[in-house]
């Protein structure tokens, strides 16, 4: 299973990434299932908002290197989250890596627990955070983005909140931290939520419309390169790539 059956409570539908064996990595199958589930939420008048969460200790480990999605399909999924006429809230209690940060960045609101960690590891694989830049760069502190894009360093939930990667970092219980957020969404009208979301996502959607095609091509070229093949092989073999000093 890659996506658990949706649950619904008082207007909030929860979608749960449920492939702990590969750390909820973004496979072609997972991207397709999540896109279909989001489309169903968009068409359902009983859904006021969507919560995106996970099983296991990892929210999303990035692309599944054994069965990766087409870059265009992943871009379409991120844009779908941004353009969905209902708020999408990320609930994170575990680790987020590489492409998983793009999924997180596309969400409207996000809460991370004390056990959450984050890293943009693409540069260490001979890649770059190309397509995930579409939702991340308009929303994240630019100096922090430069640091973490280049170094691949790991950082915690407090730092993620400081740089605006997530909305809030929970000191203890992430569900307790999210309770007032979800209460606020339940009190808002469907029209009010839709119109308000259009205002706060306009710049992000412009990023997709202006740069998606170029970044998809750039991502494909990087994945096809000799350095990326070495980086991904080294990752799967649990060794340092050839360029590490």
TrEMBL record:
Cross-referenced Gene3D superfamilies: 2-enoyl-CoA Hydratase, Chain A, domain 1, Lyase 2-enoyl-coa Hydratase, Chain A, domain 2
SUPFAM superfamilies on file: ClpP/crotonase
NCBIfam families: PRK07827.1
Assigned protein family: Belongs to the enoyl-CoA hydratase/isomerase family.
UniProt protein name: Enoyl-CoA hydratase family protein
Native species: Streptomyces laculatispora
């Amino acid at each position: 299973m890659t996506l658990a059956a949706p649950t619904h409570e008082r207007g909030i539908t929860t979608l749960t990434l449920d492939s702990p064996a590969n750390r909820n990595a973004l496979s072609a199958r997972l991207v397709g299932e999540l896109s279909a589930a989001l489309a169903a939420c968009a068409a359902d008048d009983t859904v006021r908002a969507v919560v995106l969460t996970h099983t296991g200790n990892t929210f999303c480990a990035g692309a599944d290197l054994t069965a990766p999605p087409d870059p265009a399909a992943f871009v379409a999924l991120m844009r779908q989250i941004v353009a969905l006429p209902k708020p999408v809230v990320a609930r994170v209690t575990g680790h987020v890596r590489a492409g998983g940060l793009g999924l997180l960045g596309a969400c409207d609101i996000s809460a991370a627990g004390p056990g959450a960690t984050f890293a943009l590891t693409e540069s260490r694989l001979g890649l770059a955070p190309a397509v995930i830049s579409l939702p991340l760069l308009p929303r994240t502190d630019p100096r922090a983005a430069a640091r973490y894009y280049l170094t691949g360093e790991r950082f915690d939930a407090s730092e993620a909140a400081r740089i605006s990667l997530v909305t809030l970092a929970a000191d203890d219980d992430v569900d307790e931290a999210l309770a007032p957020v979800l209460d606020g969404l339940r009190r808002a009208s469907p029209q009010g939520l839709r119109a308000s979301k259009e205002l706060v996502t306009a710049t992000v959607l412009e990023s997709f419309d202006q740069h998606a095609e170029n970044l998809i091509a750039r991502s494909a070229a990087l994945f096809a390169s000799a350095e990326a093949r070495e980086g991904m092989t080294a990752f799967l073999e649990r060794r340092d790539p050839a360029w590490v000093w």
